[in-house]
Amino acid sequence: MDDVTGETCQWRGWREATEAALYGPDGFYLKPEGPAGHFRTSVHVSPLFAAAVARLLLSAAEKAGLEEVAFVDVGAGRGELVTGVLAVLPSGFPVRAYAVERAARPVGLDPRIEWTAELPAGVSGLLFANEWLDNVPVDVAEVDPDGVARYVLVRPDGTEHLGSPVGGADADWLARWWPLTERGRRAEIGRPRDEAWSAAVGTLEAGLAVAADYAHVRDARPPFGTLTGFREGREVPPVPDGSCDITSHVALDACALPGADLMPQRDALARLGVTGGRPPLSLASSDPAAYVRALASAGEAAELRARGGLGDFGWLLQRVGGPAG
Predict the structure, then answer these.
(1) In the chain, count of helices (H) and strands (E)?
(2) pTM for the predicted model, two decimal places
(3) How far is the C-alpha of 135 from the C-alpha of 48, rounded, in Å?
């Protein structure tokens, strides 16, 4: 693709620009506050989420007949999910926990957690990637006035410019998964995410791999893409200078390998016992403190499963080496 460079004009494709902005020397995801300093994921909403993942881990271990089970938290942030899962597993459960993250190991993290920048290979158990794929950098394409899909180039200040026509494997991906025909229409080219997910699944010998993320499918692609930024809890323009998160929704159907299941988070969590049902009013009289706790838990469950919110997340479940999950 075109790459126009100079002292005041540094054009790069969005994939390269995002990689530098998120993971470069001063990258957004390497800052001390971590992702939780800027936005909430399902992990931060409620411990119910980690408890549900723990139940999924137990199920995967039982159905795969594992004596020792791995829990691999991909895109671990500062270890919130893996810490929560370990906290609710049965005492003595034979688990080996991995947190896969490019940032440095947080101070005070549970010593049972192996902190690594690379996916562990040859393990069996549950690999869980919560809001990981949306931060795998991708290029952006836009249709020019002549109907040609071109790469969108960007400068560090967020200014955009159309570059060369999309070609090769990227063009093949667009044709299959996100066809662009009308002037001004945009797409995020998800091929790097497909490859990242395939590689992650390939590290499992047996068990279950799950990706939970902002998602869309081929019949309902957003016409102008979803590229955006987040900073301090607010959505902001996606400026690739390291000052904000840069994210876009994931074409999870393109990531799916043969035999995968795809469902909304609300359904996946319901299967794992997160229902959001309100406690009976009678509990308010017999045990007011328990009623308040149960009511708070119901509210958290409702947020995790809400339509128009976290409940709309897609869950991609990929079984490996047998009927786990």
Answers:
(1) 10, 17
(2) 0.88
(3) 24
